[in-house]
UniProtKB/TrEMBL annotation:
Pfam (any one): HbpS-like
Organism: Acidobacterium capsulatum (strain ATCC 51196 / DSM 11244 / BCRC 80197 / JCM 7670 / NBRC 15755 / NCIMB 13165 / 161)
Protein name: Heme-binding protein
Domain of life of the native organism: Bacteria
Length: 134
């Protein structure tokens, strides 16, 4: 059976991420993608940047497409490293900064969360809180 996050899972992940974002005082855009990298749900918290809607969705896609935290992909995609230029692939859908994390169930990737609206550290922390709720 093909395992993937569903809407109920996405709502639980988003609720946990929203709670963390509120706790740190930073409104965020939070996206959850399924195992195929398709958007399941998205929330733009009051006051979150409009420009971060697209970024959060693309972070979720990127994290699922490569089954890696975007923070780690960013490290590997700097000039001189093995994935330099990867951000230009997939018709511009690849985001190489912190805030995307694969969602796992029983050790298997079943989707991803993408968060945008704060610093990279804030985005990653909020994504981690969401991922932990799965």
């Amino acid at each position: 059976m093909f395992d993937t996050v569903n809407l109920e899972d996405a709502r639980r992940v988003i609720a946990a991420a929203e709670k963390k974002a509120a706790a740190i005082g930073q409104p965020m855009n939070i996206a959850v993608a399924d195992a195929g990298g398709n958007l399941v749900a998205h929330v733009r918290m009051d006051g979150a940047w409009l420009g971060s809607i697209d970024i959060s969705i693309k972070k979720a896609y990127t994290s699922r497409a490569f089954d890696i935290a975007t923070k780690d992909l960013a490290t590997h995609s700097q000039s001189g490293n093995q994935f330099f230029g990867i951000h230009a692939s997939n018709n511009g859908k690849i985001m190489i900064f912190a805030g995307g994390i694969p969602l796992k169930r029983d050790g298997r990737v079943v989707g991803a969360i993408g968060v945008s609206g704060g610093s990279g550290e804030q985005d990653h922390a909020v994504a981690e809180a969401g991922a932990a709720a799965l």
